[in-house]
Give the backbone structure.
Amino acid sequence: MEEIRNSKGQTLEEFLAAYDVNKYPRPSVTADTALFTLAEAEEELCLAVALVRRGNHPDLGRYALPGGFLNMDELALQGAARELQEETGITGVPLRQFGVFDALDRDPRTRVITIGHFGLAPYGSLHPQGGDDAAEAGLFALDAALESWSPQAETYRVYLTGLSGQGELMARAQLRYDELGSHTAPLPKGPLSLASDHDHLLLGALVALNALPRRRAARLLTSTAPQLYRPALCTLEEALGALPGEP
């Protein structure tokens, strides 16, 4: 069979041998993860997310979702799981992608595109410990609230309270509407915001979590404590009830 050649007369092997990988600028790619679980806060059940405090620039000292740059030999899911282990010590939690975040100014170092992931860990199974470039890691109770509404956009606040005395944070982002439906969008950072555009990522992960049937999410979260199944349903409704979607 005659080999297929391009307009320059090259076979695929010849084309690849001559190809210059530096011909076009290449963005860096990261993977970030919003890992949710159930925890106790003041003797009440709450929905919580694992956060790390950045130990290096940029956003030194701010809290963020665990994540980092992908290696050339791994899939995004593999990179997300590796970074989660390196920064928090957490392993073995199934993860799913929920979106790509590519604002041109989201990272001052270079052009960085991130792939967002989320996962659900059973009650009592998470004990995050800071590692790699994370100065510390911990669980934060969360609650999403609608701040303002218009036909074009809804602005949400996500209140975050550290369960080990880390203090309080407040993430803000929008859910915007157009002809194709809804999509999340970032807002300017405030003094209590997460690092980079992780307010935006966190809202995207909460929207993805809210899209799961409540009963399925509750079963996953209480697989280690089935007696908490019904309280978990109430906890999910309290934390996510302000978000649009079918429970």
